[in-house]
Design a protein that fits this description.
With 274 residues, the chain is of the alpha+beta class. 16% of the residues lie in helices and 43% in strands. It has 2 domains: 4-124 and 261-273, Diaminopimelate Epimerase, Chain A, domain 1 (Roll), CATH 3.10.310.10; 132-256, Diaminopimelate Epimerase, Chain A, domain 1. Its EC number is 5.1.1.7.
Length: 274
């Protein structure tokens, strides 16, 4: 029996998502959420997206975010995704300018609003972790490995990220080297892979190969945060880091907490049969 499902397509710096509103009631059965993501994230035979966001009610926060990816896996955290979710929830009247979002990586505070019709959200990100046990990665101490002639660092910003500093990110064959590092045996759960170029004035340019999408994406919020965190940890940047992604800039700020600021936009809405 087919179901008619309403959806909203949103994007944050080109990192695009299909959002299903389950705030009042379940729309997609639990056991079908992964398959739903695989089917409709397809850019030729589906709606197209880097993942499916499910907006749900929460007993622990104002709202709950769940993200299923094109490979049917569920991600604990997504910085661009949470901005898109927050925009939808704000527009729908579920939350005010300040709210909390339950994620697989914990409760995430969000502040948001419109300036001249442009929506911007500031996310308090999970505290970056550099120890291998927290990434997770094999071994002890902080992560530093030589893989494919790259020096690879790593941090967890809600999900695991490998971070590699290169002279020119445009020269990296990310489709070839990304999967090798993503699946390296030192990462038992795999890792997202970020190639980072220092752009001057303490700013960074990055390209990200995303675990679960299994391809390069236009932007990755947790990846931008991890890249900025590793760069700061190594003394390459200060406490405010502008990170240029293929889809646009994000601003990462380090203080008592770590925040990420960036836009989100509604692209279109529709109804599908499933």
């Amino acid at each position: 029996m087919e179901m008619e499902i309403g959806f909203t397509k949103l994007q944050g710096n080109g990192n695009d998502f299909i959002l299903i509103d389950e705030f009042e009631q379940e729309a997609i059965p639990e056991e079908m959420k992964g398959a739903f993501a695989a089917l409709f994230c397809d850019r030729r035979f589906g709606i197209g997206g880097d993942g499916v966001l499910f907006l749900q009610a929460s007993d622990a926060a104002d709202i709950r975010m769940r993200l299923f990816q094109p490979d049917e896996s569920e991600a604990a955290m997504c910085g661009n995704g949470i901005r898109c979710l927050a925009k939808y929830a704000y527009d729908a009247g579920y939350v005010k300018e300040s709210c909390s979002v339950e994620t697989g990586a914990g409760i995430v505070p969000v502040k948001m609003g419109y300036t001249d019709d442009e929506f911007t959200a500031t996310i308090t990100m999970p505290t970056p972790a550099f120890e291998r046990s927290a990434i997770p990665a094999v071994g002890d101490g902080e992560y530093k490995e030589e893989i494919l002639n790259f020096t690879v660092y790593a941090a967890n910003t809600g999900v695991p990220h490998a971070v590699i500093f290169v002279k020119e990110i445009g020269a990296v064959d990310i489709a070839a080297v990304g999967p090798v590092i993503r699946n390296h045996p030192t990462f038992p759960e795999g890792a997202n892979v970020n190639f980072v170029e220092e752009a001057g004035d303490g700013s960074l340019r990055i390209r990200t190969f995303e675990r679960g999408v299994e391809d390069e994406t236009f932007s990755c919020g947790t990846g931008a945060t991890a890249s900025a965190a590793v760069a700061r940890h190594l003394g390459k940047t200060g406490d405010t880091v502008r990170v240029e992604t293929k889809g646009g800039p994000l601003v990462i700020r380090f203080g008592e907490t770590v925040t990420m600021e960036g836009p989100a936009e509604t692209v279109f809405t529709g109804v599908i049969s499933f």
